[in-house]
Amino acid sequence: MKNLLTLGLVLLGSVFQSFAPPKAATYDVVVYGGTPGGVIAAVAAAREGARVLLLEQTRHVGGLNTSGIGTAESEHMIEETISGLPLEFYQRLGKFYGSNGPAFYFESHVAEKTFLDLLKEAGVTLVYDAFVQSVAKQGTTIRSISLTNGNRYTGFVFIDATYEGDLMAKAGVSHTHGRESREQYGESLAGVRFIDTPIDASPYDDGGRLLPGFVERSTLSDGQASDRVMNYNFRLMLSTRADRRPFPKPASYNPGRYILLTRLLKNHPETTLSDIIDLYAWNYPKGKFETNNKQKAVISLGHFGGNVDYPEADYSRRKAIYDDHKAWTLGLMYYLANDPSVPDALRQQTQSYGFSADEFRDNENFPYYLYVREARRMIGAYVQKQKDILEERTKPDAICLGSHWIDCHHVQRVAVSKTQFVNEGRIWEAITQPYEVAYRVITPKSAECTNLLVPVCASASHVGFCSLRVESTWMQLGNSAGIAAAMAVRQKKPVQQLAVSDLQENLRKKGVILSVDHQVWNGTKDLR
């Protein structure tokens, strides 16, 4: 079975492409990571005349937008803030679906085709199955990167657009992960958070031992720092159509992993599938659904405790984490559809679904990417914090606008008694006004690296990152990073020494909205 996970093909050493680039090649801009932000960065730089190489770690570009997230998240942000090349991407999707305007809900395979069209038209060189092995630096300048497949690439400016920030880390750039304490940056939303109602389900096994994935309440206090990150899950694409693929039984299937579900169903036989996982119909064709972890469910797609060491893990360990999440997910769906302890109504309901046959066709209809909601975050020239979103919303070096709510999924499951547990870490803070994102958020400290931009694992506190961390905003940061990179190449300057006014003028010419004063943000004026 082909395994197309983000990090699992390191040892295969194959490059799936229409041509074979030389073992060592030089480009103006090297983008590491074909996430939506990376694709947009590569296209933006190429449109500026740069010779651009895009290195993607799987065999598919588009990150989560081609692995089950079919939304621009416009239901929880001000969609009019989406501008420039990202808006063009959504407009192209709209054209595909027969609309005169942008499509903010879309299918994964349609998004991938659109990304590939943009890359081809811009003349971007694309290499798949590419994992950075080492970084060669001279002083603060990255000279080249070597990959696990033996290839080496030289560039004038590099962009790390991965969800994990491996290029950034190997280049010696300061970074962190997890959650700061409330005191570190004076953020009321920071740190460990006990805000949810306890769930009536025992977090202990029949022998009185704490179940896997749980921690004791006595080890935690409100507002303290934590090195754990938001839980991960796969965004399955399900279907009730006749061509759906039944949920397979994973080789490592263990129904004992779902003891919480067994107990829930025994006490609540009326439970439905939508009580366990979120099902989004969006504007998909009839009978097709996107899924997500259900925040307040007793058990769902989120594999709590499974990602604890992911941010700093090596590739082989990340592969094991990926495989474990996949086994958890397949096992959960198989359990619901087949286990005799599942009430008949729920079992039959689950059997009416299967994997959508028109998605992820070369991966047994299973998503390519694990939903890594957060991993590393750069500690760069400026750290975006809570106050930059809610209070101090203007920046002299603004390169785009952000407006998504501050959104953190639960981080861990905490036993609060012998009969109850609580999901800890949720943040869901509404934003009614946009804020300006500083160029310094994507630039490292000049003493550490002078030719690298980081638009995805950007410089932010955990709270600040929880608003940036959606694909539509990462695409906007990627757009600005790509244009800035091409300018740095032309001007032969460190990325930190670009004249901000020149960068902003260039961004405005490309249709990028930079100012919170651009209009009255009341939804009455359509910027498109």
Short description:
The chain is an alpha/beta fold. The protein has helices spanning 36-47, 84-96, 108-122, 166-170, 182-185, 259-267, 315-338, 344-351, 386-390, 462-468, 471-491, 500-509; strands at 24-32, 52-55, 125-127, 132-138, 141-147, 152-160, 175-176, 199-200, 214-216, 237-239, 277-280, 288-293, 354-355, 377-378, 398-402, 406-408, 412-415, 420-424, 427-429, 435-438, 452-453.
Query: What general form does the structure show?
Result: globular
What percentage of residues falls in helices of 4 or more residues?
Answer: 25-40%
Main sheet properties = 7 strands, mixed
CATH superfamily of the domain at 25-177 and 436-509: FAD/NAD(P)-binding domain
Mean pLDDT: 93
Structural class by SSE content: alpha/beta
Total helix count? Answer: 12
CATH topology of the domain at 25-177 and 436-509: FAD/NAD(P)-binding domain
Span of the ends, CA to CA: 45 Å
Strand content is 15-25%
Poorly predicted runs of 5 or more residues: 1-22, 520-528
CATH architecture term of the domain at 25-177 and 436-509:
3-Layer(bba) Sandwich
Q: Could you tell me the number of beta strands?
A: 21
- Mind telling me the CATH class of the domain at 25-177 and 436-509? Alpha Beta
State Rg.
23 Å
Organism: Siphonobacter aquaeclarae
GO molecular function: 4 iron, 4 sulfur cluster binding; metal ion binding; oxidoreductase activity
Signal peptide: 1-20
Pfam family, one: FAD_oxidored
